[in-house]
Each structure stands twice: as structure tokens, then as C-alpha cells.
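[job 4471] stage=fold_predict status=RUNNING
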Amino acid sequence: MSHPAPPAPAFPYKLVATDLDGTLLRPDETVSERTREALLAATAAGAAHIVVTGRAVPWTRHILDDLGYEGLAVCGQGAQVYHAGEHRLLTSVTLDRQLAGLALSKIEAELGPLALAASRDGLDGEVIVGPGYEVGEGHLPAIPFTDVSELWAAPLNKVYVQHPGLTDDQLAEVALATAGDLVGVTMAGEGIVELLPLGLSKATGLSLAARRLGVKAAETIAFGDMPNDIPMFGWAAHGVAMANAHSQLKAVADEVTTSNADDGIAVVLERLLGA
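[job 4471] inference complete, writing C-alpha cells
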């Protein structure tokens, strides 16, 4: 006598939150077919997928369009909640430029001159880059500036800082100790130390987006690779660090998967889906 196959286990989360760089994106900035299929399977099982990235909307939109992504995305380190299907900003938080200027002056008094860049607010907000600031690999647009007054000429989401002699960890540590009462400080990737509105994090934006979707923190699994993902892991029920993740994130993760080059997101989702 044959017995019917047992039903597939239900997917245990209603929201899958993924960072982009070093997490969803492979080193060549593409998303693998395996990962695409795993995310589609998770959404078919009733979960929503939300991208949560440090990139502002102008540096994220082309990736979302390529994915055929029409839902909400959290961009700009939590500053922006963006509706990809409608191509519009739902929320946007800007950096107090007076406080940011004071924070920079305190950090430079401690460390000497910094190389600076900034992300301007809005759907088409430019990233502006000052002398000596090294922009990472890739083809993301940036506009050079020479006069520091241009840094403050329009509303900003964040300021990027680099130091010629310190590591990213060292720079972030000094910036936080020196100006952490004025601005938020986070490290989002190699060469990417950011000054943010005080109290802003990926968790801020993710909680806003989740509320719009009617999903709770206890129903969320999050994937990431950098210290800026720590607040998101603290908010979500389950945090998964990539094998290539920063040691600070691995220390607070619930599990560590394979690297972004080895379909780390898909590995976890397939297991949870019983695939």
C-alpha cells in the first residue's frame, strides 16, 4: 500500500532581508541563477524578499531593475525606504550638515585631514568625491569636487571618510570615540567608513519597511557581511553571516553560511525550504 508523500515543510520566515555587496551580489556584482531561484522559491512559499543596503537609491536601482524586483528596498544605510516597482521614495532621512561639519572637525583635530565623499539625498542624489578619496572598483557614478563647501551645498544622507594611514576599523573606532555623540559611525565595506544621522541604522529602515509589509522582527531572517549589518541582525529573529563576513558580524550571527561567491544565501534558503 503506497503512502502519500509528506507535505514539504513550511518556510519558517515571512521576510528575507539581504544585504547587497558581499552578500547577495557575487564579487562581479551579479546575482547567481541559483540564488535568484532560491529567492523566488522563498517568495512562492509566502515570504517577502527585501534588499537592505548601504548604497543609496541611485547606486541600487539598476540592480533591483535587473532582478525584476518590484517591492520595497531599504537603501542608504536605512535612510531611504524605496518602492522599486513605483520608482519612488517612501521615506528619507537626511544628515544634519551642521552636526556633520562639527563631527568632521573633531575627527580631523584628532587624526589630521581626511579624504571625503558624500551621498546626496533624493532619487537622483549624486555621490560627490573629494581629493584623495579612493572610490572602490565598479562603475558607480561619482562627481568630483575640490572646494569643501560643495560638500555641504545640498541635503545629504551620509558622509564617507578615509584616512591615509589608518585601517577602516581604526578609523571607525576613532571617529566613534571622538564624534559618536554627534553622528552615527559605521563601516560598510572595504574603504567605506560612514558618518550617518545619529541613531540611524539598517534596522531603522528595515523596521519601517517591515511595518509597511505587516511583518514582524520575529518573522525575519537577515543575511549580511559587514559591521553595518550588526543592527539588522539584532533586529531580525535569525542573522546569517557570509563566510566572507567581517569578524565583528560573525561574532553576533546565529549562523555562518558559505561565501557570496558560493551562493551562501541559496544554501540557507534551500535548507529551510527542504529543497
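[job 4471] summary: The chain has a mean pLDDT of 93.
[job 4471] exit 0
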